[in-house]
Amino acid sequence: MNTFRSIDELVRSLDRGKVLLKELFNKRKSQSFNYDYALELTDYDEDLIKFLIEYGIIRESGDFLEMEDIYLNFFENVLQVNEEINVAFVRDHLDRLNENIDYYLKETNEQRKYAYQREVKRCLKNIALTTMRNVIDLKRNIDNTYKNEPNYQIKLAKLKNLDEKRRNIATLITQSEEVINTRQPTFFNVAMDVQMRTVVSDVKLQLNDSFHNLIEIEKQIIHYLNLIAYQNRIFEKVRKLKYLRDQFLLEEHTDIRQVLAFKNPLWMETQTNYRIKLSIELLRSSNTALEVIRKVMTRQRGKTSAPKNIANAIPAEYMNEQTEVIDTINLQEVFNAFAASGTHLFNFVASYRYHKPVTESDKLLFFCQIASQYADELQFTDQYASAGNVEYPLIYAL
Questions:
Q1: Mean pLDDT for each consecutive 10-residue tract of the chain (398 residues)?
Q2: Residues 6+ apart with CB under 8 A from 344
Q3: What's this model's pTM, rounded to 2 decimal places?
Q4: C-alpha to C-alpha distance for 346 and 221, rounded to whole angstroms
């Protein structure tokens, strides 16, 4: 792979492929960027695409193209749209900061001491800038995760991981402040010129702002986690109510009728519209009102009244009230009677006197429903018996 020999050559190359690079960057989240589409963007200049590939700006993957990570990270960092939160950079800057402070204190040559002092200033600025960007990226990722992640488990895991990164950033801010305030007192007393004092003051203010923003982010994460837990409880409750409704047990196991009796929702009522009528005096004296009346009359003349389709009268027999009664078995009563008996569940269900004729398959269904719905109040044994083609466990009441 070729390399650029100067900044001028790099800038010219980026300018030549700016249309293609812009589209590659905009679609960096997509899974594919077709080679034929890239040819169309470059006016079918295949030599330009090969040049960008040879110099490591883009890479070819089969019939698709991608931007190299080094340029992708550069554009994301400059435009502040990166999503990765990397606290390792701050740790590296801290290590370099301590190393250059140590070199400065041991150096005797004034020119080389000034070079180490300048490197310390660069490290301090990089620590503050990287920390601020990490805080901004953290806030954006938290909001995007809560609003756009559809999977509940993944959303919860991502928020917890982002909270862990928040703690790491807070720890690094504390360590950076300790280096400035307590760990390197000799350097910041000896090398504290006017420029260094300005840099240190700016870095302290930026770190302090970042720490306060992290406190707000912590509150936001806690709020989102509480909302997720609340939504999960609502989902579980709705799922349980749906199960009870499907089993025709909703009214028996809940107080839905009592709750609805105290509710008076108005969301299904039609919205009331209040028309404001214009005054006769305004219509007589205003030129604007005259123009509006003319436009309305022009529209009315253009309308043609089409014959309306009138439906036939509703037959009288459809207006008669009809009721349908669903006769079901109350499993709660069956279970209460079984709890007072001394036999096992299958024998009791098979010999129970129901208020209507029940088939053998219905009795088997009642056996399974009672065993599942009242499992906490039943004793399941390891013994099995059979009746016809059905093998069943012996289940007794506790």
A1: 83 88 82 79 86 87 83 79 71 88 88 88 89 88 87 88 90 90 84 85 91 91 89 88 87 84 71 73 81 83 65 76 73 86 86 85 88 85 84 86
A2: 394, 395, 396
A3: 0.52
A4: 52
Single out the residue of 180, 200, 161, 173 nearest to residue 91, CA to CA. 173
- Residue 121 sits at the vertex; the CA angle it makes with 117 and 126, to the nearest 5 degrees, is 145
CA distances from 261 to 184, 242, 264 (A): 72, 20, 8
